[in-house]
Design a protein that fits this description.
This protein is mainly α. Among the domains are: 37-113 and 163-259, no CATH class; 278-430, no CATH class; 510-565, no CATH class. 57% of the residues lie in helices and 2% in strands. The chain is built from 16 helices and three strands. It has helices spanning 40-69, 73-101, 133-142, 153-171, 175-192, 197-238, 243-270, 279-304, 308-328, 337-350, 363-388, 399-427, 473-481, 525-528, 530-542, 557-563, and strands spanning 114-115, 510-516, 548-552. Strands 1-2-3 form a three-stranded mixed sheet, with no helix packed on it. α7 packs across α8 (279-304) and α9 (308-328) crosses α10 (337-350). It is globular, with a radius of gyration of 26 Å. Belongs to the XK family. This is XK-related protein. The chain crosses the membrane at residues 72-93, 242-261, 281-302, 309-329, 341-358, 367-388, 400-426. It comes from Amphilophus citrinellus (Midas cichlid). It is a multi-pass membrane protein.
């Protein structure tokens, strides 16, 4: 099946030539097979993530109950709202994902997926473009099983039980816990089984890890971030720190730093064109975000303790500016325009508190602009609080206390900046300098040069140009007789010489996706498009050999001519 960039189907034949290299092989071309195994460190990381989740939620609920017993009903209501509302949003989104993944029909009509028969034999394309007899016939030929709802009575009872179990899980706000446990189970299963079962469990574990990372990141910035600002503001206004307040604020801060670092690790692990992030680098990144977000939220709390109305205006203005800045950067994360806008609005919330990479190119420039903006805002907010701290309600802070608070903000931000430089200069997966450059180029191991799947650099062509000039008749005739490039693109600043083209590996089944591959730091389409994910899992379970994933490549003259009238 094939799909145009605007969603309408086009023919697959001659659209993706056999020589187009695999850009998303399930076996990462730049990692050894041992690096793909589920390790004890991965298991411990998941257990620690569960601990952080429970600590954050339990401390907030405990603090809300304490406010109620102390008759601080306003604080109780605000604390409880910032717990319940984000949790409900996440549960609804999680149940929607489950309902689609567990639906009775196995449809995948968005992107193009075709399986090529194994071991260099003649190709037999399997298409799910048509929902009629043609698609069903091809699925039957490939051995693809019918939908899960076609079984007998025992199968129907099992499905009802699963629906009921998931409904109970989501009603009790435990979707995150279930997904963590499920990811842990799939990881252990991939460890115990051999190929091809190991590969299947590993795929499912990565899909589950991607889901829980997105859900927890959303929940952290909808719940933990405002909860942290609220509790710090209450402590500053009351000039005292209750043990439960300190516990809740600390758990919220750790949850924020943990989740944004965990998200980056899972994202890198999911892409075969990026080197994975080590746990040492993740810990340093946690410290980076821990101190910078701590300084940021403390500056917010100081300002909000005196200027509540102006603080709300400032937050809304900052969010609008950052959202427009992100939209202007033309991100490519989602599968539709409206989903992309909503995603940009959510990233705008993240940008209120910390840096979040949405484009790989010109990272240094954009990060420098953001860091300077945040630094100026922190200085301005803290200065206004220091000058007008005696005008707020119940404000009797001494000069010594005020100086200490200013020093805490400054030192925390300085420590966060220090760990940021440590990460980018010493522990970045792409090297000491490449993390700040225009194009990230990593050194390819010598043994990986023997793999045909790594014959092209990851940033060669991952999306079609905005406009393609129509080829004239004379040029069209010349193209058929010329083996060279139809057009050449000047290499970007700092780019290294690309690796020589090697003959791509053709043995084994191939799942061809007629979509351009999204550039990092976006998720691959088979991670965010659930219909495509479902198709891949079905075809992968039916194939005798683990299939490779191949995205559309516009690197040949034949493809440019084919797509110039369909893009």
């Amino acid at each position: 099946m094939a799909a145009k960039s605007d969603g309408a189907p086009v023919s697959l034949r001659n659209a993706i030539p056999p020589e187009c290299p695999s850009r998303s092989d399930p076996r990462p071309s730049q990692r050894s097979p041992a690096e793909q195994r589920y390790t004890l460190s991965d298991c411990c990381w998941t257990l620690c993530a569960l601990l952080v989740f429970f600590a954050d939620g339990a401390s907030d609920l405990w603090l809300a109950a304490d406010y109620y017993l102390r008759r601080y009903y306003w604080y109780f209501a605000l604390t409880l709202v910032f717990v319940i509302v984000p949790s409900v949003v996440v549960q609804v989104l999680s149940f929607r994902w489950f309902a689609y993944d567990f639906s009775e029909t196995v449809e995948s009509g968005t992107a193009a997926a075709a399986v090529v028969a194994a071991s260099g034999a003649a190709e037999s394309d399997i298409s799910t473009k048509d929902s009629g007899e043609r698609g069903a016939g091809r699925s039957a030929e490939a051995g693809v099983l019918p939908g899960p709802g076609t079984g007998g009575g025992a199968r129907g009872c099992c499905r009802v039980f699963i629906w009921l179990f998931q409904a109970i899980i989501h009603v009790f706000q435990l979707a995150q816990v279930w997904r963590y446990v499920h990811a842990l189970y799939l990881g252990v299963q991939s460890r115990w089984h051999g190929d091809p079962e190991r590969r299947h469990y590993y795929w499912r574990m990565m899909f589950e890890s991607a889901d829980i990372s997105m859900l927890r990141l959303l929940e952290s910035f909808l719940k933990s971030a405002p909860q942290l600002v609220l509790q710090l503001s209450i402590m500053i206004q009351a000039n005292q720190v209750l043990p439960l307040q300190g516990l809740s604020a600390s758990a919220s801060l750790i949850s924020l730093a943990w989740m944004i670092s965990s998200y980056q690790k899972v994202l890198r692990d999911s892409r075969d064109d990026k080197l994975p992030m080590t746990y040492k680098a993740v810990i340093v990144q946690i410290l980076w975000h821990l101190f910078t977000i701590g300084a940021r939220t403390l500056a917010f709390a100081l300002f909000a303790s005196v200027f509540q109305l102006y603080f709300g205006i400032f937050i809304v203005a900052h969010w609008c500016i950052m959202t427009f800045w992100i939209i202007q950067g033309e991100t490519d994360f989602c599968m539709s325009k409206w989903e992309e806008i909503i995603y940009n609005m959510m990233v705008g919330i993240v940008y209120i508190f910390c840096w979040f990479s949405v484009r790989e190119v010109r990272t240094c420039c954009r990060m420098l602009i953001y860091s300077l903006t945040v630094f100026i805002e922190n200085v301005a907010l803290t200065t206004f609080w220091y000058l007008y701290r005696s005008t707020g309600e119940r404000q009797s802070t001494s000069d010594f206390y005020a100086v200490v608070m200013v020093c805490v903000v400054a030192s925390s931000y300085a420590l966060g900046t220090f760990f940021m430089f440590v990460y980018y200069c010493l522990l970045h997966p792409d090297g000491a300098v490449s993390g700040w450059g225009y194009i990230v180029e990593k050194e390819v191991p010598v043994e990986s040069l023997a793999s045909p799947a790594s014959s092209l650099p990851p940033d060669l062509v991952s999306s079609p140009p905005r406009t393609l000039q129509r080829t004239k008749g004379s040029d069209r005739e010349q193209v058929h007789g010329i083996d060279g490039d139809v057009f050449k693109v000047r290499p970007p600043r700092g780019a290294q010489t690309p690796l020589p083209n090697l003959t791509p590996r053709t043995e084994g089944p191939v799942i061809r996706i007629d979509l351009p591959r999204k550039k990092y730091p976006a998720w691959d389409a088979h991670f965010i498009d659930r219909r495509l994910r479902k198709t891949i899992l079905v075809l992968e379970s039916a194939a005798p050999v683990t299939p490779r994933i191949q995205y559309r490549c516009l690197g040949t003259p034949k493809e440019v001519m084919e797509y110039e009238t369909t893009v």
